[in-house]
Amino acid sequence: MIGLSILSHPVVILLLVISFGLLLAIILLGYTVLSAMDIYREKIKNKYTSLCFAVIPVVEGIPDSIFYLLVTMIGVELLVILALLHTLRVLTGIKAKERVKKVRVSKKINWVEKLNQTKSLDAVTEAEADMGHDYDGIRELNNPTPPWWRWSFYFSIIFGIVYIWRFHISETAPLQLEELKIAEAEAAVKKEAYLKNAANNIDENNVKLLTEATDLETGKKLFVTNCAACHGPEAQGLVGPNLTDDYWLHGGKVPEIFKTIKYGVPEKGMKSWKDDFSPKQLAQLTSFIKSVHGSNPPNPKAQEGEKDGD
After folding, report:
1. What is the pLDDT of residue 34?
2. pLDDT, tens digit, for every residue of 127-172?
3. Of these four, 102, 122, 189, 243, which has the most CB atoms within 10 Å of its CB?
4. Buried b / exposed e along 125-149 (16+ C-beta atoms within 10 A)
5. End-to-end CA distance of the chain
6. pTM, 2 dp
7. Is the separation of the CB atoms in 149 and 127 below 8 Å?
8. Residue 241 burial (C-beta neighbours within 10 Å; 0-12, 13-18, 19+)
9. Distances, alpha carbon 285 to alpha carbons 127, 198, 303, in Å
10. Domain span at residue 79?
11. Closest CA to 243 of 287, 279, 283, 273
């Protein structure tokens, strides 16, 4: 082990002995100073009752010269100890690092090394940056953290503070669950608008038969209000033809019925309903008419047109 071999060095042993000796002297001198301070505290209680300009010593019972001499000795010994510790550090560092004193060869530094401010660029700079820690052939170099990493770290701290304040303290911004609710509400509005537009895009080319009860109920209301006068309240036919049998004047398929209602038959007195009903309402009315097919209402009108089983 490197540590044990350093401690067995004679110079290191000598320095350690001197350090312990000086430490013992410091302890003794410190104890003396503390004792003198106790004497001073006892005597300072007996102050003069009148003012005088006599010179009072720094510590009662000890001449000033002796006091300053002891303090100076302590200071010098502390400096000596620090110097010895520094020397010991240098000696151990020399043995651990074994720096290579070579003339540094100028080397072109690429932009990555400039960006990272890398210190260890070659064998010489690596030896200078060596921290003296070697484990399994891996050395520790004194390369600082790249500036961009440090600034990113500082930015993350600032971002974290702002985030906590904004989302958890002041609550001026929505959290994830709140954002989800807002997004769902917006999606519902967009969906409703889409369905509304999709309903208004229905024509005779893409109309489908509606089977929902709400659509059929709406179609029935439209029929009773606007069509029953000509076709009867049960679509059995009056002025207009019977809409419950298998015979049709203008076709009985869903697109054909939708087209007949939309554009009307002016030559036979049936008006166009495209300006009165929306495309969705025309589809609902068409689906209702198809739903009453085969209902066999009382007093049906005689068959008209051609048979259409669809």
Report:
1. 65
2. 777 887 888 888 888 777 888 888 999 999 999 999 999 888 888 8
3. 243
4. bebebbebeeeeeeeeeeeeeeeee
5. 101
6. 0.40
7. no
8. buried
9. 92, 17, 22
10. 2-98
11. 287
52 vs 55: CA distance, rounded Å = 9
Asked if residue 157 belongs to a domain, the reply is: no
Residue type, 279: P
181 lies in a domain?
Answer: no
Residue 287: count of CB within 10 angstroms of its CB: 23
What average pLDDT does the chain have? Answer: 77
Burial-class residue 223 by CB neighbours within 10 Å (0-12, 13-18, 19+): buried
Query: How wide is the angle at C-alpha 130 spanned by C-alphas 126 and 136, nearest 5°?
Result: 105
Instruction: Tell me which of 80, 98, 116 is where a domain ends.
Output: 98
| 3-15 average pLDDT score | 63
Query: Per this entry, what is the length of the chain?
Result: 310
Q: Does 53 fall in a domain?
A: yes
SS3 assignment, position 45: coil
DSSP state of 12: H
Distance CA 207, CA 126 (A): 81
Q: What is the CATH number of the domain that holds 222?
A: 1.10.760.10
3-state secondary structure of 97: helix
Region of 214 (left: φ > 0; alpha: ψ -120 to 50; beta: rest) is alpha
Q: How many domains would you assign to the chain? A: 2
pLDDT tens figures, 179-234? 999 999 999 999 888 777 666 778 888 888 888 999 999 999 999 999 988 888 88
Residue (of 171, 206, 225, 231) closest to 283 by Cα position: 206
Show the tokens assigned to 138: 């891996």
Is residue 138 in some structural domain? no
Name which of 231, 217, 212, 209 is nearest 287 in CA terms.
Answer: 209
Domain boundary among 40, 72, 98: 98
Token pair of 120, please? 């260890």
DSSP codes joined into one string, 154-179: HHHHHHHHHHHIIIIIS--S--HHHH
CB 219 within 8 A of CB 287: yes
